[in-house]
Amino acid sequence: MILYYTPGTCALGAMALLRHAERPFQLCHVPRDARMGPIFRTVNPHGHVPALVTDDDRVLWENSAVLIHIAQHSPAGLMPAAGSAAEDELNVWLSYLGSEFHAAFYPVFKPQLFLRDDSLHDDLRRDSLKNVRRQLAYIDVHLEDNRFVMGDTFGILDPYLTAMARWGERFFDYEREFPNLGRYLERMRAEPSIAFALAIENGDEQPTVDGGYAGHTDLVPRDV
């Protein structure tokens, strides 16, 4: 598998899950200014990360599709039983994180997509952070009685939530406002798979000895 990622994005979740899943994979770093360029758009025409080239040379994008594919092709037993209550809970959280939670940050980071008038951007960010606070508070309450998103076991959702919840640390004091989430992120950053992904984002190459991570590959056009 090849995972296309940009540091600081939600693609951290897929990178960490690949490491945890014990499957061979390569990484391809996509600079922010290259995501809408002609080369990467032969991989994902929408210009978003993560994108995943599967072992049979198909390309997947959208976090939920990428994460589920990794989990389904992992020997680590990451997927709940089909048709189970746990699978329903997983789907609820994947949908929530990929919609309400992720989208809450859009006007904070990219107000120009919503308002053309630059003079209104600060007001939009300020108002949008109220929604971000509501989403963080919801997650904080959930984590009061859960060590991981789905109870006592590390799973698909944890690297995905970690990838996005860290964004809020720029704006809020988690220790004071969201202590459960703050402690959760401390634990997650100590998880080997997430620590690996964070190190990669920081430019620290860490080839693994178990045959999982096989290094970086260049960003080149795919045959279309």
TrEMBL record:
Residues 1-78 form the GST N-terminal domain. It is an enzyme of class 2 (transferase). Gene3D superfamilies: 1.20.1050.10, Glutaredoxin. GO terms for molecular function: glutathione transferase activity. InterPro entries: Glutathione-S-Trfase_C-like (IPR010987), Glutathione-S-Trfase_C_sf (IPR036282), Glutathione_S-Trfase (IPR040079), Glutathione_S-Trfase_N (IPR004045), GST_C (IPR004046), Thioredoxin-like_sf (IPR036249). Pfam families: GST_C, GST_N_2. Residues 83-210 form the GST C-terminal domain. This is Glutathione S-transferase GST-4.5. The lineage of its organism: Bacteria, Pseudomonadati, Planctomycetota, Planctomycetia, Planctomycetia incertae sedis. The gene is gst.
